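Hi support team,

I submitted a single chain yesterday and got back a structure, but I'm not sure I'm reading the token output correctly. Could someone confirm the output below corresponds to the sequence I sent? I've pasted both exactly as they appear in my results page.

Thanks,
R.
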Amino acid sequence: MNKNNEVYFLNNKNYSNKIYLNNNENKELLIIDIIKDDVDMNLDIYLQNNSNLHLVISSLNNNYKKVFNINVFHNGNESESKCEVFGVNKNNSSTSFFLQAYIKDDSKANYCEQKIRGVLLSDNAEIKGKPNLIIDTNNIKAKHALAIGRLNLAHIFYLQSKGIKKSDAIKLLLLSYFNVILYKIDDEKAKERLMERIFLEIGEIQ
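Hi R., thanks for writing in. Yes, this is the structure output for that exact sequence:
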């Protein structure tokens, strides 16, 4: 992956890595996938005592098959993991998000959160999501959420009522699937360049 500020751009369709967080270490991993190819990502992340992980993946898919397999291992006590993945799928694209969190049976006071959101822009587009918590202890706080569907027409009509044409209104709504990452970029010019790149990749929408 190439790094731009705190944002990583996926540039390899086959990506596999293991990341280890030491005691009291905090890590924020922000990944944008707008690659024009199939993707197979496998990422294993290991947390120790009092470590903190925030993972965000935003993916745009147009006619490709993409699979994201994320495993988070809570091996210590009082660690936190928050995994958020966002997918925008066009035409005949297929994306699968698999989030697994493993909590040791003798661990204490860990926190785990998983969120999957996806939007489908055609009848043939597909997004599969599976948030999975594998927990062997009651001494934990955990939650997960999954929401996949079409854009909200009421939101489109509202933006149109403000004088924004429909295609631009849709693009603005789709940009919200990248906003969690965009908000992390302090350099306004870099943020604008990234927004323009995302708009370009989204392309024309009727």
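A quick pointer for reading it: The two ends are 33 Å apart (CA to CA). Let us know if anything else looks off.

Best,
Support desk
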